[in-house]
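I am still getting used to backbone structure tokens and would like to learn alongside you. Please make up or recall a protein chain and show it to me in full. Would you write everything just below, so we can both look at the same thing?
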Amino acid sequence: MFCKNCGAEINENAAVCLNCGFAKGTGEKFCSVCGKEINPGAVICTACGAAVKGTTVASANGEQKSKLVAVLLAFFLGSIGIHDFYLGYTKFGIIKIVLTVCTGFGGSIWALIDFIRLLTGSLNKDANGVDLKKEF
């Protein structure tokens, strides 16, 4: 992990950068993933492709995923993991399909949990770390 203010490497457990004194995660000059300098206002690091914290980046298909669509998919088709596939969490989608086929209801429990997480905001990013588009 690197300081976003000075680019110095910092310990993951540190609260502040010992080099510049900035709180961990604050600053906008350097990438926290690779430590390279980033352009002001950039939404991604051009050196490593990591999203700059606090910004939204278009997902691989060119747009943010909709939170409303994810909620509806989780409610109606969640037991077979369709919302997971939509958000890019393919492994979880496959696991839910297998659980539902094998047990008849196993994926439904996770679907209910994901539905609640989507509504409360604790699940608010897709698999690429892009914020979900809030429409409700």
Summary: The chain is about 35% helix and 0% strand. The longest helix spans residues 106-120. Residues 55-61 have pLDDT under 50 and may be disordered.
